[in-house]
Amino acid sequence: MEQYDIIVIGAGPGGYVAAVRAAQLGKKVAIIEKRKTLGGTCLNVGCIPSKALLDSSEEYHKAKHKLGDHGISISNVKIDIKKMMERKDKVVSEVTSGVDYLMKKNKITRYLGLGSFVSKTEVQIKGEDGKVETIAGKDIIIATGSTPIEIPTFPIDGKTLITSDHAIALEEVPEHLIIVGAGVIGLELGSVWSRLGAKVSIVELMPRLFGTSDQATAGLAQRILEKQGLNFLFETKVLGTKAKGKKVEVEIEDKSGKKSTLEGDKVLVSIGRRPNTDGLGAKEIGIEFTDRGRIKVKPNHFQTNIPNIYAIGDVIDGPMLAHKAEDEGIALAELLAGKAGHVNYRAIPWVVYTWPEVAWVGYGEEELKNQGIEYKVGKYMFKPNARAKAMNEADGQVKVLADKKTDKLLGVHIVGPRASDLIAEVAIAFEFGASAEDIARSTHAHPTLSEAIREAAMDADAKWSIHS
Ligand code: FAD
Ligand code: NAI
Hints:
By secondary structure, the protein is α/β, with parallel strands linked by helices. It contains 13 helices and 22 strands. The strands form five sheets. Strands 1, 2, 3, 4, 5, 6 and 17 form a seven-stranded mixed beta sheet that branches. A hairpin with a 5-residue loop joins strand 13 (247-253) and strand 14. Helix 1 runs parallel beside helix 8 and helix 3 (47-66) runs parallel beside helix 6 (184-195). The longest helix is centred in the first third of the chain and has 25 residues, at 81-105. It is globular and about 65 Å long. The termini are far apart. 1,4-dihydronicotinamide adenine dinucleotide (NAI) binds next to helix 6 and strand 18. This is Dihydrolipoyl dehydrogenase. FAD binds at residues 51, 115, 144-146, 314, 320-323. Belongs to the class-I pyridine nucleotide-disulfide oxidoreductase family. One of its GO terms (biological process) is 2-oxoglutarate metabolic process.
């Protein structure tokens, strides 16, 4: 039987990054993946295809509605969905084969098939052809990720009742796309199909967007998205669906108990994802799970109750984000090599890739109030920012929350153009334990969007924002 220092089960951002880092540190590593292509949910059906479609639909929307303001007129702007999907597939294929290259470069042995525990140190791989092979590992990392949660009354058929896996591969623009769940997937894929011409209605149980994040920032994002045509039905339950020819009827109930129906041609169910442990044999060898079905690990050590078995990424607690999974992979590989691997969960950025984008690190105002932490607030709109003006993209604002006494950053919330890139400086500031004044006194190139962060930090520090 082939013996390894480390066996990784699952080749998503958590698993493949852990494998690369462990190999860099001299470990003999095997990676088991049931999908033919590497990269997991993120590269195959998640982050990358959704961003490729967001970028394409943004370009289309820009050509149709925004370039006129720049004095550029294009007549007869058309969309070719087939070509758009082919481009998306090409991007996916390039990045997934990039992971193949990384496996070869780092001499990581790849196994194709479903991995399941035979014992605490042995994993069996069952290929599509039924062939079974067993390998042994000193340490084993579970990085099996997640899959969409389904609603029992909404049986997914991949045609009218769909998940994100299908919503990134539709062959035509739906007339009316009904989305259940105004989370990250609902907003991003809702934006894609809305820009391409669909009517989009989003039914959400909660009274607002983004759960516990900053409420005013979520409200601002909501108003901008509503202006773009997304129709939110908050505090509304979905009761069931009924096929009506090629259409589908969704019965809903608002908070007053009033029932009504929405008629659409596709229903996207995006109410969160569940950890993927089907067929893994984890329970059978005694691995413990949390109440919410995730694999239980020692915080920041990623160790399960079985000492040589570890878990990272979507399958354990914490936000289901690719960069969180990657950083856990790096930290764990370093810990297994005797180094001091660590993830600073309070410095993890969140990004929602709508336009404008929404991004944040740290606490929102409500969380600070709930914890009795005294804070000060600095704000800066993108409207007076010269670069945003030059781009004609001035919707949004930056909000900085800092400790009232020490000035240490507690939360930064951005709604604005390229917030996804802007948030990187904030994440670094959090890693360094920076104050609002640290950002305010750092030179930011002019004219850039990042100056809006500096101005908001000046405002938080001692109300000395120059350009407001
Ligand atoms: P996964 O990426 O899910 O990988 C797990 C892998 O394990 C899969 O390839 C699976 O096939 C394999 N596997 C499972 N069980 C077995 C087994 N028993 N044997 C062998 N292989 C197995 N996050 C972001 O940070 N930014 C984004 O922009 C973003 N966009 C997203 C858009 C969509 C539409 C979706 C669905 C998700 C998005 N996410 C995004 C979330 C992100 O994809 C996940 O957080 C991330 O992929 C988790 O990484 P992981 O390695 O834990 O698991
Ligand atoms: P989500 O957790 O972001 O949002 C789910 C939403 O559905 C919540 O607002 C919830 O209140 C609502 N909901 C739950 N049950 C409902 C019901 N029965 N009826 C109506 N609403 C209901 O989950 P989503 O959007 O499915 O995404 C899954 C994961 O993928 C997220 O955890 C996210 O982290 C990740 N992701 C990250 C992205 C990013 O970082 N840009 C992009 C897309 C996904």
